[in-house]
From TrEMBL:
<keyword id="KW-0648">Protein biosynthesis</keyword>
<feature type="binding site">
    <location>
        <position position="97"/>
    </location>
    <ligand>
        <name>substrate</name>
    </ligand>
</feature>
<keyword id="KW-0694">RNA-binding</keyword>
<keyword id="KW-0820">tRNA-binding</keyword>
<dbReference type="InterPro" id="IPR008829">
    <property type="entry name" value="SepSecS/SepCysS"/>
</dbReference>
<feature type="binding site">
    <location>
        <position position="313"/>
    </location>
    <ligand>
        <name>substrate</name>
    </ligand>
</feature>
<comment type="function">
    <text>Converts O-phosphoseryl-tRNA(Sec) to selenocysteinyl-tRNA(Sec) required for selenoprotein biosynthesis.</text>
</comment>
<feature type="binding site">
    <location>
        <position position="105"/>
    </location>
    <ligand>
        <name>substrate</name>
    </ligand>
</feature>
<comment type="pathway">
    <text>Aminoacyl-tRNA biosynthesis; selenocysteinyl-tRNA(Sec) biosynthesis; selenocysteinyl-tRNA(Sec) from L-seryl-tRNA(Sec) (archaeal/eukaryal route): step 2/2.</text>
</comment>
<dbReference type="GO" id="GO:0005737">
    <property type="term" value="C:cytoplasm"/>
</dbReference>
<keyword id="KW-0963">Cytoplasm</keyword>
<feature type="binding site">
    <location>
        <position position="75"/>
    </location>
    <ligand>
        <name>pyridoxal 5'-phosphate</name>
    </ligand>
</feature>
<dbReference type="GO" id="GO:0098621">
    <property type="term" value="F:O-phosphoseryl-tRNA(Sec) selenium transferase activity"/>
</dbReference>
<comment type="subunit">
    <text>Homotetramer formed by a catalytic dimer and a non-catalytic dimer serving as a binding platform that orients tRNASec for catalysis. Each tetramer binds the CCA ends of two tRNAs which point to the active sites of the catalytic dimer.</text>
</comment>
<dbReference type="Pfam" id="PF05889">
    <property type="entry name" value="SepSecS"/>
</dbReference>
<feature type="modified residue" description="N6-(pyridoxal phosphate)lysine">
    <location>
        <position position="284"/>
    </location>
</feature>
<protein>
    <recommendedName>
        <fullName>O-phosphoseryl-tRNA(Sec) selenium transferase</fullName>
        <ecNumber>2.9.1.2</ecNumber>
    </recommendedName>
</protein>
Length: 485
């Protein structure tokens, strides 16, 4: 409805009523105009009606929704199912063009505008979350692992002689396979145990660079968000090492946007040294469906180079999902979620500590990990070798998702590389343990219910262990006594 249509409406319905409706419409349009002018996440979240109006306005700018459109090409935004069309708000053309995922499509002004606005709003959120000097970013319709691969493939053109990626070990398959898929050999650097924490061995990184030769190294591939007792890498020191040796630095910041500590590490690393790009998941940080990531950095030309490496057009679904979410939450709503996550982290730590004490275990001391916690399972290991892995199965069947139980001595081969002590981020961690995390969107009720079910599982396993011991036959007198031999 434009001003002319509103004037015509006054001939049909009372002028006072139409003007009231016109004013309401202008309220929606004012919010949309602010978004277009500023390109930032609105401070206060929009209503669903405003979001839907905006998306509808974008959709009618795409050629597949033109009333008189006559398409005779192979890609004309045709959709067989009306349900699928509604699911995508009739934004069918996707984003980018064959040569650049960030390019504007002549057939799809609305989808192109969606893409540009999403990247602009996400950039604003990254700055708000702590990386103030980030220069550029774009949403890519791939999860974190493949997005890291895209970064490595882009660097290949800058460093054609490079064969290796220096990688402080983190036991997570996708980031390891990202390097293999890109055609590089991971140079694994084991972590060093400091108290209960597993931290970056900076001396070992330096030795690895000297051993391989800086010109043969594509980049250092570091990590922020991770499962305790591993903690975020020493990003400032690694960034300084990379600057010293003129080696690119890619950071896996998978679910680090929700942590001010992780974002601060990236900001400081870029300030004192070198960070070329950092990659983060959409679903883990913004509570949207799996399938998207953000590639960001401090050199706009390099981020543009990565976007141009993406072959072909791309799905607009991840961009649409995160834009709807951020417009609905607003900056204040997202900041509130981050604040609540921090509070629940402290609550989870206290509850796990109390539970651990009640069962003769302890909460591992990992102050440098701002998201994940770990509780020892020494007592459970003493009951039987199977008890630790059985706990994981019991929690899963009792609908406790996300908790990870890490036994001792597990081995795993990934793409021909054998890892000892897999899942514990080192070859021989001193004890088995259980992980739990306070991630964005978690509620106190989640923690309370988890602790209650975990307590029951531990009591059940202890009871079963005691019953097994009491039912086993006693050894004959003298058997097993070898003191006289």
């Amino acid at each position: 409805m434009n001003s002319e249509n509103f004037s015509l409406s006054e001939k049909i319905v009372s002028t006072a009523y139409v003007r009231q409706g016109s004013q309401a419409r202008r309220g929606h349009e004012h919010l949309i105009r602010q978004l277009l002018e500023q390109g930032k996440c609105p401070e206060e979240g929009w209503s669903e009606s405003t979001v839907e109006l905006f998306l509808s306005e974008l959709a009618v700018m795409d050629s597949n929704n033109f009333l008189g459109n006559c398409g005779v090409g192979e890609r004309e935004g045709r959709v067989a199912s009306s349900l699928v069309a509604r699911r995508h708000y009739r934004l069918i053309h996707g984003i980018g063009r064959s040569g650049d995922i960030a390019a504007i499509q002549p057939k799809a002004a609305g989808s192109s505008l969606l893409n540009k606005l999403t990247n602009s709003v996400v950039l604003d959120i990254l700055k708000l979350s702590g990386v103030r000097s980030v220069a550029s970013c774009f949403v890519v319709p791939m999860a974190t692992g493949m997005s890291l691969t895209l970064c490595f493939l882009t660097l290949r053109h800058r460093r054609p002689k490079a064969r290796y990626i220096v990688w402080p070990r983190i036991d997570q398959k996708s980031c390891f396979k990202a390097m293999i898929t890109a055609g590089f050999e991971p140079a694994v650097v084991e972590n060093v145990l400091e108290g209960d924490e597993l931290r970056t061995d900076l001396e070992a990184v330096e030795r690895k660079i000297e051993e391989l030769g800086a010109e043969n190294i594509l980049c250092v591939h570091s990590t922020t968000s991770c499962f305790a007792p591993r903690v975020p890498d020493r990003l400032e020191e690694l960034a300084a090492v990379c600057a010293k040796h003129n080696i690119p630095h890619i950071v896996n910041n998978a679910y680090g946007v929700q942590s001010s500590k992780c974002m601060h590490l990236i900001q400081q690393g870029a300030r004192v040294g070198r960070i070329d790009a950092f990659v983060q998941s959409l679903d883990k940080n913004f509570m949207v469906p799996v399938g998207g990531a953000i590639i960001a950095g401090f050199d706009e030309s390099f981020i543009q180079e990565i976007s141009q490496m993406y072959p072909g057009r791309a799905s607009a679904s991840p961009s649409l999902d995160v834009l709807i979410t951020l417009l609905t939450l607003g900056a204040s709503g997202y900041k509130k979620l981050l604040s609540e996550r921090k509070e629940i982290y402290l609550f989870l730590a206290q509850e796990l500590k109390s539970l651990a004490s009640a069962h003769g275990e302890r909460l591992l001391h990992t102050p440098h990990n701002p998201i994940s916690l770990a509780m020892s399972l020494d007592g459970l290991q003493a009951e039987s070798d199977k008890a630790v892995t059985q706990l994981g199965s019991m929690l899963f069947t009792r609908q406790v998702s996300g908790a990870r139980v890490i036994p001792l001595g597990k081995e795993q081969t990934i793409s021909g590389h054998k890892f000892r002590g897999f899942m514990s981020h080192c070859e021989a961690y001193p004890c088995p343990y259980l992980n739990a995390a306070s991630a964005v969107g978690i509620a106190r009720e989640d923690v309370t219910l988890c602790i209650k079910r975990l307590d029951k599982c531990l009591k059940t396993l202890k009871k079963e262990g005691n019953a097994a011991k009491s039912s086993s036959p006693a050894a004959p007198s003298g058997e097993g006594d070898t003191t006289g031999e």
